[in-house]
Amino acid sequence: MILTICLFTCTVCLIIAYLWIVSHSYGYFKRQGIPGPPYRFFFGHYKDLWSAKSVAKQLQEWTRQYGSIYGLFAGTTPMYVVSDVDFLEKVYIKQFSSFHSRRLPIILRLQTGNKIHLFGATGLRWRRQRHIISPTFSGAKLKLMVPLVNQCIEAMLNKLSDIIDDKNTDINIYKLYKRMTMDVICK
Fold first, then answer.
1. Which residues contact 141 (CB under 8 A, 6 or more apart)?
2. pTM (2 decimals)?
């Protein structure tokens, strides 16, 4: 009998603690003074985003309603949605050491598994990969690539004009664009 009462009491205490932690988490943006759409307990904004025809359009609508910086919940995890370009520039360039990682969407985590790549890496792994790759994409090196990219674009446009001359032909622009991209990468 005492064991049953202890187990019941512990279970009730754990449930109350969990509910308090979750409700405290949902108060995050309110404590920060950040606006945001109303959330659903436990699901956050997942249900709203899943039921929307287009996630991008739903986010645009919320941006119109709540401004360029507002808060969403991925389940019980708070996330900022920022569409202010000047603010993003400050965060990603000037305060990079504080904001060097981002949360990867669940879909990408499931698709990539344990594979290591720049889009899926976080924390120190991401910082190391970025440190290795960044010199390749410096402003000076990108300027050197412009003539090569233009040459590949010209070749694609010539091929496109040849195809257009034959008016009965359908154009698979994706296939042409894929070839042009490979040309740029190979040069």
1. 135
2. 0.52
